[in-house]
Specification:
The protein contains eleven helices and 13 strands. Strand 1 and strand 2 form a beta hairpin. The radius of gyration is 32 Å and the shape is elongated.
């Protein structure tokens, strides 16, 4: 409760809730209408006004029928009441600004996660900390991200990599998602209920660049079974890869989260491959020994404590 002392002669303390009730009656024209507007009981409205009149030392309203009309003293008090609420609102705004977290948060995120996963997370962070300046760098190799973390150029990174053990870096698995081989709806494998991995031999394949962890995992699986693609088209952009698959240029392996909309719309067909199950895990990484600013602490806390560690 914010209380304001008028003068030593009054020896009175004014409750802002009572002032707001006074203004509600003045605007709505009756005690009952003010009660409905404020969503409180009418006896509570009466108690507020009685208390305010006692503090001020003069009556504020005359009840005429079902309405309420301000007394001359009430009319004089109106401007003061409006000013009290204005000052209280201004004080609350100043307090909120002083408590707000300021500064810069520098993140490095792999392209697919930034495109398909990060927007709602960034929105959540920014709505809570609107004074923080967000800087997100996209589509850098994981080795680059790790090096930049060690040198302090980024506050945190989100990568798709196998677990690693680097003493100076902290990490937290955020979510896992299946990798799926997708083809054009008219591809000769699209209508088959199941496909053997060996049937992918001599197929045209569209891959991201070699820095993508899931590409390396998939190619190792192919090499283990001596499967050699007919051609390999390498594109360093996931949206472009999907567009190429959708016009029939070849097949691709992509995280499920990146193709949900196209699969739902029938633009891409995921193959059911016997004995084939690969997944990719997103990891949050930060420098354990770096002195973190408050925005970085808040972001890491949000990701570690609020994002499920396994989302299939």
């Amino acid at each position: 409760m914010l209380s304001i002392s008028f003068s030593d002669s009054f020896k009175a303390m004014i409750d802002l809730k009572h002032v707001k009730t006074f203004l509600a009656i003045q605007q709505r024209g009756s005690f009952s209408a003010a009660a409905d507007w404020l969503d409180i009981a009418q006896p509570t409205v009466s108690l507020h006004i009685k208390s305010l009149e006692k503090s001020l030392g003069y009556p504020l309203f005359e009840r005429i029928g079902k309405g309420a009309v301000m007394t001359p003293a009430g009319t004089r008090f109106l401007l003061s009441a409006q000013e009290l609420i204005r000052l209280a609102t201004e004080a609350q705004t100043i307090t909120a600004e002083q408590q707000a977290i300021h500064g810069e948060l520098k993140l490095c995120v792999v392209q697919s996660i930034c495109t398909y996963k990060m927007p709602p997370l960034l929105q959540k962070f920014q709505s809570k900390h609107p004074a923080v300046r967000l800087q997100v760098t996209v589509n850098r190799p994981s080795t680059y991200m790790l090096q930049q973390l060690r040198t302090g150029d980024f506050d945190a990174a989100i990568v798709l990599e196998a677990p690693f053990d680097i003493p100076s870096l902290g990490s937290k698995p955020l979510w896992s998602d299946q990798l799926q081989v997708v083809v054009h709806p008219h591809h000769h494998l699209a209508q088959k209920s199941t496909v053997k991995l060996a049937q992918l031999a001599h197929e045209a394949m569209i891959f991201p660049d070699w820095s993508a962890h899931y590409r390396r995992v998939f190619e190792r699986r192919l090499q283990e079974q001596e499967i050699v693609p007919k051609t390999i088209l390498e594109i360093d952009n996931m949206e472009s890869i999907k567009q190429c698959v959708m016009i029939g240029m070849g097949l691709a392996i992509l995280p499920r989260y990146a193709i949900e909309q196209e699969v739902s719309n029938g633009l891409l067909i995921p193959l059911s491959i016997e004995g084939f199950k690969l997944s990719v895990t997103a990891q949050l990484i930060w420098h354990k020994e770096k002195i973190m600013n408050q925005p970085a602490k808040e972001f890491i806390d949000m990701m570690v404590n609020r994002v499920p560690s396994n989302k299939n």
